[in-house]
Every structure is written in C-alpha cells, then in structure tokens.
Amino acid sequence: MILQALVKYYENLEKQGKLPRQGWCQAKVSYGINLSIDGNIKNIIWLKDQVQAGKKQIWISKTMTVPTMLTRSSGVAANFLCDNSKYLLGIDKNGTGKRITECFEAAKEKHIKLLENTSGEMSRAICAFFHKWNPEEAKENTAVLENWEEITDGGNLIFCMNEKYAQDDDEIERLWDASSNQSETDMDGICLVTGKKTEISRIHRNIKGVPGAQSSGAALVSFNAPSFESYGKEQSYNAPVGKYAEFAYTSALNYLLAQRKYTFSLGDSIIVYWAEEAKKEYQDVLLALLNPIKDNQNEVHTFFEKLRKDEQIIIDDIELNPSQKFYILCLAPNAARLSVRFFYQNSFGNIIKNLECHYERMKMVKPKREEREYIGIEDMLKETVNLNSRDKKPISNMAAMVFSSVLQNTRYPASLYTDTLIRIRAEQGRITWGRASILKAFLMKNYKNMEGEIYMGLNEESNDVAYVLGRVFAVLESIQTDANPEIKSTIRDRYFNSACATPASVFPVLFKLKNSHIKKIERDKGYLKRKYEDLLGELVSKLESYPKRLSLEEQGKFILGYYHQKQEGIWENGRENR
Fold first, then answer.
1. Quick count: other Cβ atoms within 10 Å of Cβ 261?
2. Predicted confidence (pLDDT) per residue in 282-298, tens digit
3. Alpha-carbon distance 291 to 8, whole Å?
4. Does this model's pTM top 0.90?
C-alpha cells in the first residue's frame, strides 16, 4: 500500500515536471568539466549557487537531472556522466592510487562502451577525453590544479562543452534511454506494486534525508541475510518489485524528504505527507493545522469553521477537495534500513475533521498571558519532556502513537497520560495549560469522562471526589499565599504529590496548617477569611471522607480540579492567584 501510493504520487509529480522520467534522477552537482572538441579539459566550471543561510552566505550545489546514479556500498561501480572526481578524473585530494585508478577505469569502460559508435560532438569529446586522460598527470593540467581542493571535495562532476551539459545532448539522451531499458537480469516476475509482469529490481535505491540513518541513505525494501529469504530468493527478489515501481517509489520518497518544509520530527522519527494529486496546497494546510503558531491561530480557526459548514476552501487560487486522498508516513532510522512507524491514508477532509476533534478535546481555560488557541502536536508532546535536560525529544514510540491516534481519532496511548503525570510529579505539581489540556483530552477520549465544554473551565457542579479534592488543595494553597505574600515555597512544593496520590494521609495535615494561616488572614483581611471559609465549607460538604488512594484516572481529575480552581481563583482586589 505504501509503495503503491508513492508510485501514484511520482506519476503525478512527473506529469508536473517536478521529477524526471525513469532512467534519470535529480542529483546535486558541484562542478562541470568543460571539454574541447578533441577531449581536452579547457577549464572547470563552478555549478554552485551562493545563498543566504541565517547571517552568513553558503555555497549550495545545483540540482540537475542526470542519468540514474547507482547505489554503491564497498564495490567499484561507475555512474554515467555524473560522478565524483575518483571516477571521472581518477584523483582525490591526495592524488591517485590503485583503488582510485580502478574507479577511473570502470568509468572509462562504461562511457566508451556506450558512446564509442556515436557521431555527435559531445559524445566524441567524452570518448576522446577518456582515451587520452592520465590521472597520474592530472596536476599538469592547469585547470585541474587550480581547482584541486574544490573538485576533490566529494561533490559530483559532470561533462560539458561551454554552456551545454552532456546529459542534455539529444543523442546521448536517446542512447541512455535505450541502454537503461535493457534487461540486466533474467529475473522476471509479477510486480507487487503494479501487478504487471516485468523485470524485477535486484537492489532498491537508498532513501536519503531520514535523520539518524546513514548519510549515504538507507533502504526501505531490503534483504541481506538467509534468515530473511524465502524459497532461495535473495536480496530484493524476496519482495518482487519491478524496476519501474522501484524507481518511482524511491524517487517520490526522496523528493518528499528533500522538501524539508513539509517534514517534521517526532522523537527519532520523521513524518512526510502528501496528497495523491501532488498539489502542495494540501500540504501547506496540514502543516499549518498540525503545528499552529501564534500568528496563524485565527486562520486555523477560520479553516475549521469553513470545513464544519461545508464551505468552499481556496488556497492560492486552488480549491481544496475534502475527498482528495491523503497519505501520512512516519519513518524511523534503523542502521542501513528504515523502519515504518505507521502509515495512514484517508480523505483530506476526514483527516482534518479528526484533527479538529482532537483540538476540541484539548480546549482548556488558559492563563491571560497565553495568546494561542490551539496547541500543536509538537508543542503538546514537549509537555511530557524535561526541557532542562540535554535530550528534549519525547519518547519516540509514544510520540508516533500519539500522532497516529490524533489522525485516526482513536484512543490516545496510555503512555501520553502517564508521562504527563510523571512530568507534573517531577516538577512538584507544576501544571501548565498544555499539561492540563492533555489530561482532559485523555480522560474524555479514553475514559469517556468530562464530556462537553463544561470541563473546559471550572465545574462548580461536579461532585467527583478527586476533582473536588484538587479544588480544595488549590484553595488551601491560596490561603497560605494570601497569609504569607512573600512566601517562595508553598504546600504545592511539599505536599502536592502525596495529596494527589494518597489524600487521606495529607489533607488532615493541610487543614491544620490552614487554621494557622486563616488566623493571620483574619487579623489583616477579615472579609477574605469569610470568603475562604464559605468556599471550603461548600467543597468539604461534597466529601464524605478522604480516600486512602487515588487511581491514575482519579489523579488526572485531581490535577484538573486544582488547575481549574487556580485559573478561576480571584481572591483579593482583582488579584489572580495563579
């Protein structure tokens, strides 16, 4: 299913001219070897562009369409027309050697075999170059010597004649198309992706751009040990994918990963997403909705409103179709291979509706300083992390499962809830807007508690014991801070975790402390004492006794009761006690 979706995406990209046809690929090219008609090197042409990166300017290699490049491991394998200096010039930064000479000879053999019977100027110039070039005499060429450090830096080189590149020559293009379509093996079979009988690809190209994977790329489909083989079928013959399908899916996935704007990380995983019609407007919308920033909160709200009312949605003069097939793929590095954390497909409209349901569950009364209306997935997951630690990434498996549950509107993973509770305990009851929102959303979806908007803020009608206890704790803390305005450490720092888990052992102590604090308030602010006693009396009347223990579900309710009361509590002269 993944490969089929990627192949379809490639075909739509190819129609738009964004990806090359089969037998060709896009590669970063740094330099051009400018040849004369008799095969001599006239000069080296720089193909890098200078771009602004932050406060400095850097040189970026030009992306060009070249003949498909091979996947190399440790053997000698030459590419056609585009390769590094070891293959096209037989040199590296230290000169030449036996291994480097083997690379050059492999490139020489490949180019002469393909071009020796041609008549075009470009073909004859390349053949003449390989016949006369001697890597051991490379430093005698002024153009090569002047650019030695640059052309041996590992970047790709191509052949050209002034402003005409070899891969753009019509004759060479036809020769390469005919050559690349020839069968290289006798292994034919039914392609699992297209369902057609075709030549099966023995080795699949690497996928580049997944953080944590090898810099040279990693394989999505690969078999390298007998334990993974079936009926003696080695390498990728064990999962028969035709050469066209292999080229198409690898091209599409590499294209997606290269569009860094439309990727984002979750732990050690990376997310890519695309619409089947290959229109970036769908990606732009999902990107904005997944991680709303402070400046686009109103736009996100407007988009959800239009979707809810079935109104027309137009982005950059493109009308978005809610029925458009949309795909989301989560990949994680695994040495030389890639792991698929999850793959989800649905209509674009359904995915957005599921995302809106998540945001509705996350709605929570917020501090006045908070300007956002929506907490993005990334920001939500940060609430489970110690931001003072060296590694600020959420747990990878948990992050991927949370994202998957949001997309599908299913139950959240239990680890999201427990990790949030652990973080609150570790910080002695520090409950942020985001953490309270997570607990509420989890209780609503997984436990079917707190349905509706009534628990977005303080629910004064609730008689739930855990929720009421949380409110009581907030009131007791407020009494302490009003009695001692300069206090730096409150009962929250010392007693919150115990009160949340084992209230029976803590609340009697807290009420004794309250008695001394209320006496001090009575001396200075008698009217405030009456307000506190009335509120405490109302809350305590809802409790028959203090439970010995609270379950994890009840602890979440306790925390919400505490948070709601803190956000609601205004006790003196309009001052917010938060």
1. 9
2. 999 999 898 888 788 88
3. 27
4. no
